[in-house]
Design a protein that fits this description.
homodimer; about 260 residues; Rossmann fold; 5-stranded parallel beta sheet; two-stranded antiparallel sheet; about 15% strand; globular; Acid phosphatase (chains A, B)
Amino acid sequence: MACSRNSLVSFFILGLFTVLISPAISSRVLSSTKRPVNGESRSSVASYCESWRLAVETNNAGTWKVVPSKCVSSLETYYNGGQFDKDYNVVARYALAFAKTVKIGGDGKDAWVFDVDETLLSNLEYYKANGYGSEPYNSKKFHEWVVQGTAPGFDASLKLYTGLKNIGFTIILLTGRDEAERRITEKNLHDAGYFGWEHLLLRGHEDQGKAAVKYKSEQRSRMVKKGYILHGNTGDQWSDLQGFAVADRSFKVPNPIYYIA
Amino acid sequence: MACSRNSLVSFFILGLFTVLISPAISSRVLSSTKRPVNGESRSSVASYCESWRLAVETNNAGTWKVVPSKCVSSLETYYNGGQFDKDYNVVARYALAFAKTVKIGGDGKDAWVFDVDETLLSNLEYYKANGYGSEPYNSKKFHEWVVQGTAPGFDASLKLYTGLKNIGFTIILLTGRDEAERRITEKNLHDAGYFGWEHLLLRGHEDQGKAAVKYKSEQRSRMVKKGYILHGNTGDQWSDLQGFAVADRSFKVPNPIYYIA
């Protein structure tokens, strides 16, 4: 039989395509988890960083200074891939479910404590621009970001905050921010959609240099002395939740970017 | 020109292969995460279960009865894929690193407390055969497993235990197991490679029905009254670590299979 050179050539190219491209496709699929990073495979770095993040969230890591540089890309994936938001959502849902079981007295003394940074307001934009916590804390630079007052709220914390208000809880905000930052903090919180808190407690002169867990315990203790019942407390740091005058239930929202002693 | 029908046919088949198979390959790659499970995509179930596990490990979930049935396959992957072991290893390394900073007095009073089940001994074999914690706790069935005395140790806890002994810590084992299970527990621990503990504290008659956190706090308190300094405490349950007479540092090893109040 006769056949055109063109058809033969086109089938040949098509055939060659299969032979050459198929392995390339499959190797691309595999290599994303297999390519080594400083001798470690990407998958082993990723699973170490997952373990590291769990150790941080459970407070097993204790005091730590910066995010391991090899875990920065895992954190990017954690935030940009949406798992951080899902994790935060689940915590907020557990908090609201507990809140619904509390008998509200109606005297305004049934209280819920919230931390501010990384609990009600997100500074992720700042940390994205500053190595996702892999760079040492720069108080001057962070203060410059804070006074811009542009930190957004978390959808899940807004839902929780509003849900608690609707149930009848009195909201107490307890932050490590300085008294000098009160105005901008109030404005930022309002712009982010938070309204109607009873107290916004910031560090005064007498609180300078105090460990966060001591400062926050003392402030909660003052609230208890005023007659508030601290049913719940939400914070991104263990130092927001531990110490004395702790709430009946504490909720640790995720923050694998920095640690405050 | 002339050409053989065979070569033409073989090229044709080769060409057809590319066109038909390539999409099949890529769709197979995608579908593993996209296939729906009761309306939810596998990936959204997996990320919910990851959030649920984090909420459990951080104690945000509070009291819970069983593993959500939709998370059983995520737990299988967590254990069989090796992430559980990696998570446990990282906690054990943090614990040993802390232990090395403790100044040992040499009077035998520097102590470390260990829980037993899911901390020194793994009952995973039992739970694998019983729905990975998705079935309600069956005390009779679990007791039958316990008295077999075949629970293996965790590599990481064996390393930690031995490391602490070498540093000079006195080991106190504090378990919710019954006094009647002392013999088999001692044998199982020895078979798993644990030796030389100072105390093995089990529930006596007076401890029946006590909440774990109360029972364990009372036992730690007794040890403190005996003059022990509780530098560290390792457990898989928050009720192993909280309450009163808590250790200087507590280490929560992972256990997303069951909760003990």
